[in-house]
Amino acid sequence: MTRRMIFDRRHLLQGAAAGLAASALGARPAAAATVTIGFIYVGPKDDYGYNQAHAEGAAAVKKLRGVTVIEEEKVPETIDVVKTMESMINLEGASLLFPTSFGYFNPFVLQAASKYPQTEFRHCGGLWTDKNPKNAGSYFGYIGSCQYLNGVVAGHMTKTKKLGFVAAKPIPQVLLNINSFLLGARSVDPDITCRVIFTGEWSLAVKEAEAANALLDQGVDVVTCHVDSPKVVVQTAAARGAYVCGYHADQRPLAPERYLTGAEWNWATVYKTYVEKFLAGQPLPNFTRGGLAEGFVKTSPLGAMAPDAARRQFEAKKAEMTKGGYAIVAGPLKDNKGALVVPAGKKYLETAVELESMNYLVEGVIGAIS
Amino acid sequence: MTETITDDPARRGERRDFATERAWIARRAEPLVIVAASLLAGCGLFSLLLLTLDKSPAQFFELLWRGGFGSWFSVQNMLSRTAPLLLAGLCVALPARLGLLIIGGEGAIALGGVAAAATGSALSSAPAPLVIAAMALAGMAAGGAWIGAIGALRHYRAVNETISGLLMAYIAIALMNHLVEGPLRDSASLNKPSTAPLPDADRIGAIPGTDVHWGLAVGIACCFLASVLIEKTSWGFAARISGGNLRAARIQGLPVGALIVAFCALAGAAAGLCGMIEVAAVHGAANASLASGYGYTGILVAFLARQNPLAIIPVAMLLGGVGAAGGLIQRRMELPDATILVLQGMVFIVVLFAETLYGRFHIFTPERWARKG
């Protein structure tokens, strides 16, 4: 500063008056008209995975007019997330929050929604029920169909007929992805098997690398995963010459030569819909879910290494699924202990509530839940 | 860490003369001045880093103040984050007085939380105060047994307590996951395996007038109790002697083995209580979120506090405030989350380095003042 500034009382009053006048006249239209929207991530937003998928959605929201996006990454599922939400509301005036980690919902989002009835909360995971606060809600995508498509391509590419799956925890969402991946591959060749290793944690790079290596040691030649960040699995498998199918976000930049395709979230669709409704002053839905048909999920572009047969089946299946009403889980279906889990003639659409408590691995998956 | 046996006449009920008074102040001032200077030096180093990133250190520290301490909302935010750090810090500080470096508090927190949740759901029909007391006891017993075992391994089998503590933390977390996903799982918790939720009556609420839960008061009380134990009791005295020179303590006939196991068990009980409070005040059930790093932050807390239980209180508040401001700094300055970790790491290294400075400054030595007086 070149000029010395002297603040005496008169200047201060003048300044205050000018400031008041300015704000009364709407001299700060940008600040007055924007809506502040907060995104909260449990991990780093450049993790090539779960959090990056949400951050890409947030980036799409940033391009909308009249919106200020604030983001915070690596917020654990503890009292920290409560305080982050409150801080966004109290210190930055956020009026719509997207706390994106599954574990934030109960009890933290529910508590915050009760405490701040003027703020809207939408949470990723599909946990909201009508007993919960009305200013909260859930959204989620049916990504099993994309894992099925991963399986179709993997089924064409595998030479050893052994696929590998690195999974975090044996919970219904993960089991559905594993089963979908194998069923996709078996639609190409019913002799294909899939070995699964559970690491027990959502984000534990060392175990993910060990699991990927262990799978490759057993002769697996196409690997996919369901962990928060597929980065380690993709890099480990690709470095050893296996093909990989991605999950959550696009991991092609990590292994352009070995990345076949991937099951990706398309949160931009969801977030833009919410925010446009919000800006227009319309009520936000409490519960939204969708799959390929609704644009909630997408596939990474198919890699050039995939042969024509794979490409044709992949595109045909994807087109069929995008029409809606496709059932991956259809009888007769046995679990990997030989018990019939879905009788002949019975089938479950992706919206079926039964799939949300899936507790089996289908025949052909080598691995155990407990 | 050295402990000098007090020769303070005031403790013997005599009046201190001026020289003794000054010598006493000088000795007490040494850790305060050195820790404060290391904090400043750490912040200075960090400012250099910010400058190389083209970010303003002034804005950083202004946001740090505003987010962590500058308003009632920020203070409550800071205190909420302080609560678990107090007990986690004690888990490191207590064994450290015996010269043991135990860094496995994370495991005791996880197991304490699971034990508390299991007890809570088993007793859910009993009156609430009884349930809460039983949960606290269960948490302390589980944590105490876990860290106590590390002490026992150290004393009876000469297993390095730092290594075994760290490795046993991994086992404890795996055990917690097994219990939460297996025998103790609430079948309704499909995609986030948890124990059965505690009824609202059995949960720990907020201190009236604030939104900070009672765990903060419990943590502060435990720090005071630990300080009394170490400074005012013969057990604490014996522990300090053993920490200063284990062999000499043994020759003196002190029960070194019992001391080691007891102090480790107490440390584990503090961590287990921390886990119980997380369950009863924050989560309402035990699940994988219990292992969220408080045990590791506790190491930093204890070292910054130079293993002094009373100093843990301001240090935990400082780190709580830094954590509280972290989000605001991330959002306003567009710095990555790791920024706060880098700041903590720099401060930690400077504080460790400063350990070598004790006794080097003549101004703090009692002799200087005694002679002049």
What's this, in brief?
With 370 residues, chain A is of the alpha/beta class. Helix content of chain A is 37%, strand content 21%.
How would you describe this protein?
The complex is a heterodimer of chains A (370) and B (373). With 370 residues, chain A is of the alpha/beta class. Chain A has helices at 9-24, 29-33, 50-62, 79-92, 105-115, 144-157, 172-186, 205-217, 231-239, 267-279, 308-322; strands at 35-40, 67-72, 94-99, 120-124, 136-141, 162-167, 193-198, 222-226, 243-248, 259-265, 287-290, 297-299, 329-330, 333-334, 340-342, 347-348, 365-366. Chain A folds into two domains: 32-141, Rossmann fold, CATH 3.40.50.2300; 144-263 and 300-366, Rossmann fold (3-Layer(aba) Sandwich), CATH 3.40.50. Chain A has eleven helices and 17 strands. In chain A, the strands form four sheets. In chain A, strands 12-10-9-8-6-7-17 form a seven-stranded mixed sheet, sandwiched between helices. In chain A, helix 6 packs parallel to helix 7 (172-186) and helix 8 (205-217) packs parallel to helix 9 (231-239). Residues 1-32 of chain A have low confidence and may be disordered. Chain B has a domain at 89-305. Chain B has 373 residues and is an all-alpha fold. The mean pLDDT of chain B is 90. Classes of the chains: A alpha/beta (370), B mainly alpha (373). Chains A and B meet through strand 2 and helix 4 of A and helix 3, helix 6, helix 10 and helix 12 of B.
Q: Tell me the major beta sheet of chain B.
A: none
Low-pLDDT parts of chain B are: none
Distance between the termini of chain B: 28 Å
Mean pLDDT of chain B: 90
Shape of chain A: globular
Oligomer: heterodimer
